[in-house]
Amino acid sequence: AAAAAFGGAAPSLRNYTASLSSLGSRKAWRQALILFRGMRHPAPDAFCYTALSSACEKGSQWAMALSVFDEMVARGFAPSVVSFSTAISSAGKGAQWQL
User: Fold this and answer.
1) Confidence at residue 49, expressed as pLDDT on a 0 to 100 scale
2) CA distances from 40 to 13, 43, 99 (A)
3) What is 40-76 written as a DSSP string?
4) pTM of the entire structure?
5) Sign of the CA dihedral 81, 82, 86, 87?
6) Each residue of 2-22: b (16+ CB within 10 Å) or e?
7) Burial class (CB in 10 A: 0-12, 13-18, 19+), 53
8) What does the alpha-carbon distance between residue 76 and residue 22 come to, in Å, rounded to a whole number?
9) pLDDT digit of tens for each residue in the chain (99 aa)?
10) Euclidean distance between the first and final Cα of the chain, in Å?
11) What are the two backbone dihedrals, phi and then psi, of residue 35, each rounded to the nearest 5 degrees?
């Protein structure tokens, strides 16, 4: 299914990250979440997690954005400046400054 979505070729992490970012720019957080949860080979990396978190934040889904950030950290990925910034922005938009 994923190969069909990428023109028959096996998708790379770069393809997934670009797709997640594109969906985020359109505030299509649900589609980004579906794409992300369908990733098997390759498994998501920190860039994919950050792109999904950003898509959720842009789609006004602050709780989901923070949940994705937490999952990324729990899976052992080191947060980047961008992922921290997205989490902070999400918390601010959700008036969750005490997190």
Assistant:
1) 96
2) 11, 5, 31
3) -SSPP-HHHHHHHHHHHHHTT-HHHHHHHHHHHHHTT
4) 0.84
5) negative
6) beeeeeeeebeeebbbebbbe
7) buried
8) 25
9) 555 555 667 789 999 999 999 999 999 999 999 999 999 889 999 999 999 999 999 999 999 999 999 999 999 999 999 999 988 888 887 765 555
10) 38
11) -60, -45
User: Exposed/middle/buried for 72, CB within 10 Å: 0-12, 13-18, 19+?
Assistant: buried
Residue 80 tokens, joined: 């980047």
Angle between helices 29-37 and 13-25 (to 10 degrees): 160
- Residues contacting residue 82 through CB under 8 Å, at least 6 positions apart: 50, 54
